[in-house]
Structure formats: C-alpha cells, structure tokens
C-alpha cells in the first residue's frame, strides 16, 4: 500500500472541491436564472422570463456532471491510497480544468486575468479553477509527496493500468 496522501491534497480533493462542486450543481439546476446572469448578464433571460427549455436541460445536465465530478473525488479517492489511482484521476481532473477554462473564451480573454472585476461566478469559474489546477499540477509533479511521489509521478502519464 502507498504512503498516505498528504493532508493539503486530501483536504482539497476530498472536501473543499467536492463541496464547491456540489454548490455549483445546486445553482446550475435549482437557480438557473441566477447562474446564467452571473455567467453572462447580457445574454441571460430576464428573471420574469422562463429559461429556454434547451438551456434548462443543458444546465441540469451540467449539474449532473458536477455531481459526478464530486462523486469521483469523494468515492474513488477515498477508496484507496494507491498513488497511481490518485494520479490517474487527478490527470483527468486537470484536463477537465483546462477544458473548463477554454469554455470561458467566448466571455473575452480579460476574464482570465481581470480578477478585480470578477463576480462570484467568475471567482468559481476562473479563480477556483486556477487553484484546483495548481493543486493538481503540484500533486502530479510530486510536490510534498516525498521521494516516493517524485519517483512514480510519470506512472499516470505512461501507465493508466
């Protein structure tokens, strides 16, 4: 069995991120007007107008994916201390972070760096994703994992077994 995963990684990946992801799922499914207004106010429907059916379906499906994302972290990562399993899942999460950020490009490139203009959604969609991606890169690079983490960090890239 692998050495224990250091506390900062466990706290973020097993508690902080799943909780914030479930919060995002709640807003995407249950507070769709607010979710859309915070994402892009100019294109969001007015509060007294219904959310278009296709948009409501897409947001509910997004919420479902957020729940899956949280469950993968909570259930898979809690089931093992095997760093190869952790690395495989963390690689997938890092790729999802990059895809999530790429999905924001239509909002304009300044959304990635004008943090002083961010609203709550931007802090979640950009700031929190930056934090998550940085945490994952540190984990994958072996920072804080000791020499055992450094020696096996390439396993996730070369061996998804």
From TrEMBL:
Origin superkingdom: Eukaryota
UniProt entry keywords in alphabetical sequence: Membrane, Transmembrane, Transmembrane helix
Domain DUF7704: 5-143
Residue spans crossing the bilayer: 53-76, 88-108, 128-149
Pfam families assigned to the protein according to its UniProt record, in alphabetical order: DUF7704 (PF24803)
InterPro entries linked: DUF7704
Name recorded for this polypeptide: DUF7704 domain-containing protein
Species annotation: Mytilinidion resinicola
